[in-house]
Write a structure and sequence with these properties.
By secondary structure, this protein is an alpha+beta fold. It has 3 domains: 87 residues; 46 residues; 55 residues, Nucleotide Exchange Factor Grpe, Chain A, domain 2, CATH 2.30.22. The protein has 3 helices and 6 strands; from the N terminus they run H-H-H-E-E-E-E-E-E. The strands form 2 sheets. It has a 3-stranded antiparallel beta sheet with strand order 1-4-5. Helix 2 packs antiparallel against helix 3.
Length: 192
C-alpha cells in the first residue's frame, strides 16, 4: 500500500507536470506566434526603412541638383547684371554721338568765330534736348529758398535785395536725373 500511495503521488505529480508542460507548450506556441508577428513587423519596418532610405537618397540627389541649378542661375544672373552695367550707358552714348560728331564738323568747317559760335549753339541745344529726353533737369536755384537736398552753399552774405535763407546767385548748375539729385547746385545764400 505504501507503494500504491507513492505511485498515486507520482502519477499525480506526473499529471500535474504534464499539465504544466501543456501550459508551457501553449505559452511557447503563443510566444512563437507573437515572435512571428514581431518578426513580420520588424520585416515591415526594415522594408519601410529601406524605402525611406531610398527616398532620402533621392531627395538628397534632387537637393544637390537644385542647389547646382540655383548656383548656375545665380552665376547667369550675375553675368547678365554685369552685362547690363557694362552697357547701361549705350543708348545715352548713341544719342550723344550725333552731337559729338556735329561738334567735330563745326570745329573743322567753321571759318569765322561767328560760324563756330552758331554751330556750337546748335550743338548745345541738341545735346540739351537729348539729355532732357533721358530725364535730366536743371535744379532751379537763383531766387529760390535754399534747400540742402538740392543746393550746396559755398558762400553766405547779407543782401538787401534777398530774404534770409534765399539764394542770391548760382555759381554752378545742379541737376536731377528722373527726380534724383545727381549734382547739387553750388550757390551763394543770403544770411542776415
Amino acid at each position: 500500500m505504501p507503494n500504491d500511495k507513492k505511485i498515486k503521488d507520482l502519477e499525480e505529480k506526473l499529471k500535474k507536470t504534464k499539465e504544466k508542460l501543456k501550459l508551457q507548450e501553449e505559452k511557447l506556441k503563443d510566444s512563437e506566434k507573437e515572435l512571428k508577428i514581431k518578426q513580420d513587423e520588424l520585416a515591415n519596418i526594415e522594408k519601410d526603412l529601406e524605402d525611406k532610405s531610398e527616398e532620402l537618397a533621392d531627395c538628397e540627389s534632387r537637393e544637390l541638383r537644385l542647389q547646382a541649378d540655383f548656383e548656375n542661375f545665380e552665376k547667369q544672373i550675375e553675368k547678365q547684371k554685369q552685362e547690363i552695367i557694362k552697357f547701361a550707358n549705350e543708348n545715352l552714348i548713341i544719342n550723344i554721338l550725333d552731337s559729338y560728331e556735329d561738334l567735330s564738323r563745326a570745329l573743322e568747317q567753321s571759318k569765322t568765330e561767328e560760324e563756330l559760335r552758331e554751330g556750337v549753339e546748335i550743338i548745345y541745344s541738341k545735346l540739351k534736348s537729348t539729355l532732357e529726353k533721358e530725364g535730366l533737369e536743371e535744379i532751379p536755384a537763383e531766387g529760390e529758398k535754399f534747400d540742402y537736398q538740392k543746393h550746396e552753399a559755398l558762400m553766405a552774405e547779407a543782401s538787401e535785395n534777398h530774404e534770409n535763407g534765399y539764394i542770391i546767385d548760382e555759381l554752378m548748375k545742379g541737376y536731377t536725373l528722373k527726380d534724383k539729385v545727381i549734382k547739387h547746385s553750388k550757390v551763394r545764400v543770403c544770411k542776415k
